[in-house]
Amino acid sequence: MRYISTRGSAPALDFEGVLLAGLARDGGLYVPETYPDIAGRLAGWRGLSYQAIAYEMLLPFVGDSLTPATLGDLIDGAYGSFNHAAVCPLVQVGANDFLLELFHGPTLAFKDVAMQLLGRLFNTVLTRRGEQVTVLGATSGDTGSAAIEALRGLPSVKVVMLHPKGRVSEVQRRQMTTVLDDNIHNVAIEGTFDDCQALVKTLFNRLEFRDRARLSAVNSINWARIVAQTVYYVTSALSLGAPDRAVSFSVPTGNFGDIYAGYVAKRMGLPVDRLVVATNRNDILARALNAGDYSTGTVQPTISPSMDIQVSSNFERLLFDLFGRDGAVTAAAMTGFQHSGRLALGGNILDEARRSFDAVAVDEDMTRETMAATLRQTGLVVDPHSAVGLAGAARARGDAAVPMITLATAHPAKFPAAVEAATGISPGLPPRMADLYTRQERYAVLPHDADALEAHISAIIA
Ligand SMILES: Cc1ncc(COP(=O)(O)O)c(C=O)c1O
Ligand SMILES: N[C@@H](CCOP(=O)(O)O)C(=O)O
C-alpha cells in the first residue's frame, strides 16, 4: 500500500513512512492511493472478535511494514488494555437506536482505541530502526491524555503536547499534567485548540526544524490513527446485521477524524446509509455540509470542550476525494482557506458530500436536555459529547428501519461538572484514578507563538 498527499507534491510513502512522517512535507495529509475492498469478506467476519476484525482491517494498510504476526501481537496487546471484553460494546438505547461505547480504554475516551495501537507501532518501528522521534501534538482534551498514556516511558519518543490553557476540563488537564515521566512535556498555550493545531502544522512546515527535531504526529494527521478508528464501524455494523443491511452512524465531531474513519469504512465497502456529523455550537462543519459555507468564526467554549474546534483538520481528506483526488486543486483550496478563513463549496461538491453525510449543530440547552432525557429513558449517564451525538441522531433520523448507532466518545467522569448540572448525578472516576485531584502537576505555559514553541522544543531535545 502506498500513501499520497492530499496536496499532491510530497513523496508517496509506505505505511512505516506515514506512521513516522505525520504531516506530508507539502503541508497535506496522507491518504491511501486506493481503498482496499472488504465488501465481499464482511459476511465471513461475523462472530469474529474485535481483535480479529482489527487484524483483517489493518493488514492491507500495513503492507510490508510489519510481519502479520507482529501486527497480530500489537493488536492483542493494545486491546488487552481495555476494560471490556468486547473492547467497544454496543448498548441499545431505543427501538432501533444504539450507543457504541468507545470509552473503555485506559484514559476513558475513544482516542485510546487508536492510540493504544499507535504507541505500540511507534515502539516497534523505532526500536527496529534504532531511532528517536519527538511527537508534537495538539489536544482539546482527550488526544493528549490518550497519547501520553500510550507513549509514557518509551525511550525512543519525546512527547510535546499542547492544550489550550483553561479550555479543557480539570480531569482532562490532570490526566495529562500529572504524568511526570521524563519523556512527557505538556504545554498550555494561551489560545484555542485551533491555535494549538495551527502551531503544530506551522512547526511541521518549518522543514529544517522538523528534520532536526525529528517531528512525528499522534493527532489524526497520522493515517494510522484513522485506520485504527475504522474498525469499530465494522464491528458494530456486523453485530447489527451488516452486510445484509445498512446501518447509520451519528458521530460527535470536531476535528473530523472519527467520522472520516466511518467514511473510509464506507468507501471500503461497509454498507453505511447515513453518516451524521453532530457538532456543538462550533458549527463550521454543519454550515459547510448544509450550505456550502466552510468559513471559520471565533471558537466558542461549550460543555463539550473536546469539540470546540473550527478548523477540522481531516475535512481536507474528504475534500481531496470530493475534488476528484486532484492534489493541485486541494492545495489551492486549502491555501485559500488558510489565508481568508473561507471556502465556498460548489453545487456538485456539496451534492457529492451529501450522498454520505448529514450535519446537525446541537446547542448547549439541547445537549443538557439530551443528557437528562437519556438518563430518564434508559438509565444511562452519558457525557456531553456523546449527548451531542445522540441529539444529532434524533434530529437527522431518516428511515426508522435502519439501525442508528451513536458513538459514545467519552466516559461521563471526564466532565463531572457538566454531567451533574444536567442530570444531578456526579459520575465517579475509576478507583485507579481516585487520587487524580491530589497528584502533582507539571506543565509549561507559552503564548500562541511558533518561535516561542520552537525554542521550547529545542531546549527539550538539546
Ligand atoms: C470526547 C470527544 N468526542 C468527540 C470528539 C470529536 O472527534 P473528531 O475530532 O475526531 O471529530 C473528540 C475530539 O476529537 C472528543 O475528544
Ligand atoms: N478532540 C481532540 C482534538 C484533536 O483531535 P485528533 O483526533 O486530531 O487528535 C482532542 O481531544 O484532543
Automatic annotation (TrEMBL):
<dbReference type="InterPro" id="IPR000634">
    <property type="entry name" value="Ser/Thr_deHydtase_PyrdxlP-BS"/>
</dbReference>
<dbReference type="GO" id="GO:0004795">
    <property type="term" value="F:threonine synthase activity"/>
</dbReference>
<dbReference type="GO" id="GO:0009088">
    <property type="term" value="P:threonine biosynthetic process"/>
</dbReference>
<feature type="domain" description="Threonine synthase N-terminal">
    <location>
        <begin position="2"/>
        <end position="79"/>
    </location>
</feature>
<keyword id="KW-0028">Amino-acid biosynthesis</keyword>
<dbReference type="Pfam" id="PF00291">
    <property type="entry name" value="PALP"/>
</dbReference>
<feature type="modified residue" description="N6-(pyridoxal phosphate)lysine">
    <location>
        <position position="111"/>
    </location>
</feature>
<feature type="domain" description="Tryptophan synthase beta chain-like PALP">
    <location>
        <begin position="100"/>
        <end position="335"/>
    </location>
</feature>
<dbReference type="Pfam" id="PF24857">
    <property type="entry name" value="THR4_C"/>
</dbReference>
<dbReference type="InterPro" id="IPR029144">
    <property type="entry name" value="Thr_synth_N"/>
</dbReference>
<comment type="similarity">
    <text>Belongs to the threonine synthase family.</text>
</comment>
<dbReference type="InterPro" id="IPR051166">
    <property type="entry name" value="Threonine_Synthase"/>
</dbReference>
<dbReference type="InterPro" id="IPR001926">
    <property type="entry name" value="TrpB-like_PALP"/>
</dbReference>
<dbReference type="InterPro" id="IPR004450">
    <property type="entry name" value="Thr_synthase-like"/>
</dbReference>
<dbReference type="GO" id="GO:0030170">
    <property type="term" value="F:pyridoxal phosphate binding"/>
</dbReference>
<dbReference type="InterPro" id="IPR037158">
    <property type="entry name" value="Thr_synth_N_sf"/>
</dbReference>
<keyword id="KW-0663">Pyridoxal phosphate</keyword>
<keyword id="KW-0456">Lyase</keyword>
<dbReference type="InterPro" id="IPR036052">
    <property type="entry name" value="TrpB-like_PALP_sf"/>
</dbReference>
<keyword id="KW-0791">Threonine biosynthesis</keyword>
<protein>
    <recommendedName>
        <fullName>Threonine synthase</fullName>
        <ecNumber>4.2.3.1</ecNumber>
    </recommendedName>
</protein>
<comment type="pathway">
    <text>Amino-acid biosynthesis; L-threonine biosynthesis; L-threonine from L-aspartate: step 5/5.</text>
</comment>
<dbReference type="Pfam" id="PF14821">
    <property type="entry name" value="Thr_synth_N"/>
</dbReference>
